[in-house]
Amino acid sequence: MPSKTTSSEAVAPLAYRLRPKTLSEFAGQKEIVGEGTPLRTSIENDTLSSLIFAGPPGTGKTTLAKIIAETTDAHFVQLNAVTSGVADIKQVCAEAERMKQSFKQRTVLFIDEIHRFNKSQQDALLPFVESGVVILIGATTENPYFSVNSALISRSQVYLLKPLSVEDLSAIIERALKHPEGYKRTISMKPDAIKHIAESANGDARIALNLLELAVLTIGSNITLEAAQKLLSERSKRYDKKGEDHYDTVSAFIKTMRGSDIDAALIWLYKMILSGEEPRFLFRRMAIFASEDVGNADPRALPFVISAWQAFEMVGMPEGEFFLAHACVYVTQAPKSNAVTNAMYGAKAYVQNAPSLEVPYRIRNAPVKAMKEHGYHEGYQYAHNAKDAIVKENYFPIGHDAQTFYEPSNRGFEADIKERWERVKKMVRG
Q: What's residue 369's pLDDT?
């Protein structure tokens, strides 16, 4: 008579049934758990210290924790940050302390979605991690440096798991087709169909196996590329407007525009558009970019983006995509200069650190005659009366030497600005 566990496993999802139980079955993340890596050695030798696994869904965080559970001699306890509170943490840690003192046995505490723990929950855990009562293994889909207590981070080894490659996912699918816990009947699947499902999974092993299961249930035992393409034509992309992939994609978009690759910039733009990103957010980023990264190398970039933005507001989607793409192409191809940005930060820092910034009397406002009698406005030279509208003058605060914050580049229109600015500085400052 089958046990209750066997019965439930028989109807469990494919991804659950085929979860690797050993490192030799684990696919991907070779840089982290490949042969000879420090983590693999510590798992095999059962000499773990606290760990935090961070990465997108389906990259192996929980699976690695389960493999550790199978290989360690330590007492293994699992908590879910969504359903566990401070009381649960204290109870587990108290039991861990008892087992350490009475039986000299370590406790490995696995916390899934550790980023969901609030500060008080993480603080409750900290002293037990510090004292070595528990060895923490935390799993998170968020950036741990933003979402996990810095004290916990400093006492743990952080491993960033990457989305699985198409080759890794293809190997996982092929393993599922042959595994005794996979399918009782023979499933014929063409290599190009396997590759298509692997590509559709966006680096997520769980999605790859779920798509395989969907294909078997929907198509049957003979899965061709054409059938798989038809089934998965409306696949979703991994993009969370509030998650790490959002920030990673925005970062890629900005860095690609900065690198002047128009075609790659359009890919990141459309990844965000088709994933439901707010178009106004994209226009805001391009407007900032037009000043921060293009600046005076092409002073038309900022008004161009603003004009495209205004046109979008009048037209809306879907035709508004033209204006998004137009602005993206323009600022990406524009010559680049961060001279304005550097000047801004330089002047701001100077002002923040200056003890005094007194305005020279000759360039102060003097609306009444009595103020002029106290030296206000005295000696001021009206620039428009001079040749080229330039006079020799010290416009800096009293007691301050002349400073140079803005250093124009030799790119685009800013090259003309540089030539004029060097000439003007000599005339003004002597």
A: 62
What is the distance between the alpha carbons of residues 416 and 54, in angstroms, rounded to a whole number? 49
Instruction: Tell which residue, 322, 329, 327, 333, has the closest CA to residue 294.
Output: 333
Q: Taking the complete model, does pTM exceed 0.70, yes or no?
A: no
Residues 6+ apart with CB under 8 A from 259: none
Number of H helices, E strands in the chain: 21, 7
pLDDT on residue 297: 92
String of b and e for 62-73 (b: at least 16 CB within 10 Å)? bbbbbbbbebbe
Q: At what angle do helices 279-289 and 244-258 cross, to 10 degrees?
A: 40
Neighbours of 384 (CB within 10 A): 7
- Integer Cα distance of 159 and 29 in angstroms: 10
* Sign of the torsion formed by the C-alpha atoms of 267, 268, 274 and 275: positive
CA distance 396 to 390: 16
pLDDT tens, position by position, 165-199: 999 999 999 999 988 888 878 888 889 999 999 98
Q: Which fold has domain 355-429?
A: post-AAA+ oligomerization domain-like (1.10.3710)
325 falls in which pLDDT band (50, 70, 90)?
Answer: very high
Residue 124 structure tokens: 């409750």
Q: Domain 166-231 belongs to what topology?
A: Helicase, Ruva Protein; domain 3 (1.10.8)
If you search the block for the tokens 């970019």, which residue do you land on?
Answer: 289
Residues in contact with 27: Cβ distance below 8 Å, sequence separation at least 6, in sequence order: 20, 60, 164, 168, 169, 171, 172, 175, 205
The domain segmentation of the chain, as residue ranges, is 29-160, 166-231, 244-333, 355-429
Dihedral, 413, 419, 424, 425 alpha carbons, nearest 10: 110
**Encoded amino acid at 96, one letter:** A
Domain 244-333 has CATH 1.20.272.10: yes
Is the separation of the CB atoms in 33 and 55 below 8 Å? Answer: no
Instruction: Of 392, 395, 396, 288, give the one whose Cα is nearest residue 350.
Output: 396
Class of domain 29-160: alpha beta
Q: In whole angstroms, what is the distance from residue 39 CA to residue 49 CA?
A: 10
Q: What tokens appear for 391 in the block? A: 């006079």
How many residues are there in the chain? 430
Measured distance CA(218)–CA(220) in Å, rounded? 6
